[in-house]
Design goal:
By secondary structure, the protein is of the alpha/beta class. 46% of the residues lie in helices and 15% in strands. It folds into five domains: 154 residues, Orthogonal Bundle (MutS, DNA mismatch repair protein, Chain A, domain 3), CATH 1.10.1420.10; 107 residues, MutS, DNA mismatch repair protein, Chain A, domain 3 (Orthogonal Bundle); 236 residues, P-loop containing nucleotide triphosphate hydrolases (Rossmann fold); 87 residues, no CATH class; 71 residues, 2-Layer Sandwich (Ribosomal Protein S8, Chain: A, domain 1).
Length: 831
């Protein structure tokens, strides 16, 4: 009984009604409205697995339940050998077709991605032969077709011929006796075809009167000449009905023969519809898949929202829903929530209770990932008043009776053994775990003398700490706030109250007890200031004033810490923005230098090609004539002129410039002969092997001394090397084809990339298509590694993101983030 009461107190039926609106069939909607709560954890795990797979299907191939009808009553009637109507048989056929399409859609998916749903439809029998037979015999209007029975086709042909004859005779009668008719109309009365005759003219058309108008001015007469045709038509219609009934009887027998398969089919289809409805409702809520934590694991519910309030906000223009954060150590058994009235304490209880019920029923929980909470055998609540004038119950009596039912439900109402002493501070002693229940108590101990109510509340909470997995209670008693400091199993929480605006913020604060702020709220509501001032004097002389002062100090310290945290976050944001700007400018400079270098190289290559072409022309011209020393000298001078015009190194040196034993110095500008006369800077002194390091543009290279010259044309004079001992002797035989050994200096290792708000994108809760659009825009402006937060969830979003990154031309590589940055729930992409 108390469990049923709890569902009503937590408004579970209302949530189920909202859930049912996402169902596609009547059976699914009806099942969702009842919202059955599983009794075993394995059932909840199975339902969640179904929801996760249906959730993934919504992104790729949403299930279509078109044609599925509620055929339960028809199957029951068929098993009792009743004859089903044409519409009922047609519903069975369309349901079989719809179930077959659903099975095909699920079987078409990858087996590893949808094992639960594929196992669910594996034994589905859709009986295509029965479906085909029904469609052969029943048309889309639910009528028996002519092809269902050869005899039926003949009867219907006779009916048409008789009907045509009857109408032809009536038409001739109306033409002959037009003056006797009220209007030229053929109609039916009692299944017979009649014409409307004026009462004074009834003898003009002899026949059978089947009806009279209300005014008595019109008689509906079946002319005597067509009575025989009417009788024959009625006989043929009876024969038609008998033949149609035989067809439907035969089909009904076939349905009865496979009724068990059809009932199993309906159960599977309803299960699939429920799973799809859970997935669609969860998707609409922005909820995430929960994980049932073990006894030694924390409870984590961040940004938890009340689902019914979310519905009100979106559909009924309700207030904005303020989420709460619930994170509890595994050893916590009791949480005492304090704070002012209208601050959201009761809503917090209901939100926690609904979260536990939703997870048990296979629904996702409207909280951020990760969602981790225990699986509770029972969720029991005492919320609100239970006053009854008829039963002579006060508020306090109502609370006590309901709490008594809670204690009886968890088996903790025995008083034979004395209550255990409070546990000492430190780790809990080893022993059996308490009963796996969640108990929610609103205003525990209220409605009676404060002293006795406080004592009762303390004793009750200590009792529940020994017998339940978790108890969450709201209270105004200050004594309950001190239990945390006496027993490690207790924790304090409070709903925040803004002293400036004198209004609640509905945020849940952990570790800090709250103040009731009764006088403050009363003053805001306009109570007489004289009364409030007098009340303040009474409060001031009590010890509660000291407690409130301590709490106020803690709240002020927390606000200062929050302000400092916001300031620090602002500074970090500014620093990140500045860093991003510097990186952007550095990248722009690097691009400019690279482009400039490429342009120079292209210009040099073009000059070399042009010069070679002109030189080749000179050589061909020289070869065609009679070569003489004078002609060779002129050709040499012309080649030197072309080289000077193209900015290439020549064999000539400035006048009066002697070729001496030139030695390049650090920082000096030199010309690289092997690279088309490219200007470079000496960055290291020559080594013993005749090598020298130079830099041109962004490149640092090592070349031979003989491959450089000064800007004035001076070259380094080096000792000749014997071909036997020098591996480079063959290359020196042809000075025009000598090679330059270029070594690229190793790059300095890049500084480790840091994750910031500028290079991080959060796409949790999005569809894959939405995430791809956001990622495209984010990657377009990225200048280094980016962190993509997709969470774990069903895994669909992560796979979709990685497939997108594989195809993106700007993405070099990607991998899981470090554990400190989110691990497998975050992907780092190098762009």
């Amino acid at each position: 009984m108390i469990q049923s009461e709890t569902l009503d107190l937590l408004e579970w039926p209302r949530l189920c009604q909202q859930w049912s609106t996402f169902a596609a069939t009547k059976l699914g909607a009806r099942a969702a409205q009842h919202g059955r709560i599983p009794q075993h954890q394995w059932e909840s795990e199975q339902l969640l697995a179904q929801t996760r797979e249906a959730y993934r299907l919504e992104d790729t191939a949403p299930l279509n339940f078109r044609g599925i009808q509620d055929i339960g009553d028809s199957l029951e009637r068929a098993k009792l050998q009743s004859i089903l109507s044409g519409d009922e048989l047609l519903d069975i056929a369309t349901t079989l077709a719809g179930a077959r399409q659903i099975r095909r859609a699920i079987d078409a998916q990858e087996e590893d991605d949808f094992p639960v749903l594929q196992a669910l439809v594996a034994q589905l029998s859709t009986h295509p032969d029965l479906e085909k037979e029904i469609h052969h015999c029943i048309d889309d209007r639910g009528k028996v077709t002519d092809r269902a029975n050869p005899k039926l086709a003949g009867i219907r042909s006779s009916i048409k011929g008789t009907y045509d004859q009857l109408h032809e005779k009536l038409q001739r009668i109306m033409q002959r006796q037009a003056g006797a008719l009220q209007e030229a109309l053929i109609t039916q009365r009692a299944g017979r075809y009649v014409v409307p005759v004026k009462t004074p003219q009834k003898d003009a058309i002899p026949g059978i009167v089947h009806d009279v108008s209300t005014s008595g001015a019109t008689l509906y007469i079946e002319p005597q000449s067509v009575v025989e045709f009417g009788n024959r038509l009625r006989q043929l219609e009876r024969q038609e009905a008998r033949e149609e009934e035989l067809v439907r009887q035969q089909l009904s027998g076939q349905v009865a023969a496979v009724s068990e398969d059809l009932e199993a089919l309906m159960a599977v289809v309803t299960t699939l519809d429920l799973a799809t409805a859970r997935a669609r409702y969860s998707l609409w809520l922005g909820a995430n898949s929960p994980r049932f934590s073990e006894a030694n694991e924390r409870t984590v519910l961040r940004q938890l929202r009340h689902p019914i309030l979310v519905w009100q906000q979106r559909h009924e223009a309700g207030l904005t829903v303020v989420p709460i954060d619930v994170t509890m150590r595994p050893e916590i058994r009791v949480v005492a929530i304090t704070g002012p009235n209208t601050g959201g304490k009761t809503v917090t209880l209901k939100t926690l209770g609904l979260a536990a019920l939703m997870a048990k029923a296979g629904l996702f929980v409207p909280a951020r990932e990760p969602v981790e909470l225990p699986w509770f055998d029972q969720v029991l609540a005492d919320i609100g008043d239970e006053q009854s004038i008829e039963q002579n119950l006060s508020t306090f009596s109502g609370h006590i009776r309901r709490i008594g039912r809670i204690l009886a439900a968890i088996g903790a109402d025995q008083t034979a053994t004395p209550p255990p002493a409070p546990l000492p501070a430190g780790p809990l002693p080893a022993g059996p775990l308490p009963q796996n229940s969640l108990v929610l108590l609103d205003e525990v101990g209220a409605g009676t003398d404060p002293t006795e109510g406080s004592a009762l509340a303390i004793a009750l909470l200590q009792h529940l700490a020994n017998h339940t997995r978790l108890t969450v209670a709201t209270t105004h008693f200050g004594e309950l706030k001190a239990l945390k400091y006496q027993d490690d199993r207790f924790e304090n929480a409070s709903v925040e109250f803004d002293d400036v605006s004198l209004s609640p913020t509905y945020r849940l604060l952990w570790g800090i007890p709250g103040r009731s702020n009764a006088l403050t709220i009363a003053r805001r509501l306009g109570l007489n200031p004289t009364v409030l001032d007098q009340a303040q004097t009474y409060v001031g002389v009590s010890k509660q004033d000291d407690v409130n002062a301590v709490i106020a100090g803690l709240e002020a310290q927390r606000k200062r810490q929050e302000t400092q945290a916001e300031q620090a976050a602002s500074i970090v944001t500014q620093a990140e923005a500045l860093k991003a700007e510097i990186e952007r400018k550095a990248a722009a400079i690097k691009d400019w230098e690279l482009n400039h270098k490429l342009e120079q190289e292209k210009a040099i290559q073009a000059a070399v090609v042009e010069a070679k072409a002109e030189i080749a022309t000179v050589i061909r011209r020289l070869q065609k004539g009679n070569p003489t020393a004078q002609a060779a000298q002129k050709a040499t001078d012309l080649v030197e002129t072309i080289a000077q015009q193209q900015g290439l190194p020549t064999g000539k040196h400035p006048a009066k410039q002697a070729i001496t034993d030139y030695k390049p110095k650090l920082g000096e500008k030199v010309r690289l002969i092997g690279l088309g006369g490219q200007t470079a800077e000496v960055v290291e002194a020559p080594d013993a092997d005749g090598k020298i390091a130079v830099r041109f543009g962004l490149m640092k290279t090592v070349v031979d001394l003989k491959d450089i010259e000064s800007l004035t044309g001076q070259k380094v004079v080096t000792a000749k090397t014997s071909p036997k001992t020098s591996p480079k002797a063959p290359a020196e035989k042809d000075p025009e084809n000598r090679r330059v050994t270029v070594k690229i200096a190793p790059k300095e290792p890049p500084a480790p990339a840091l994750r910031t708000t500028q290079n991080t994108i959060d796409i949790r809760g999005m569809r894959v298509s939405e995430a791809e659009a956001d990622l495209e825009n984010f990657i377009a402006t990225a200048t280094g590694p980016i962190w993509i937060i997709h969470g774990h969830g069903t895994g669909k979003l992560k796979r979709g993101v990685r497939e997108f990154l594989k195809r993106h031309p700007q993405v070099l590589s990607f991998d899981n983030a470090d554990q400190a940055d989110g691990g497998t729930g975050v992907t780092v992409a190098q762009v």
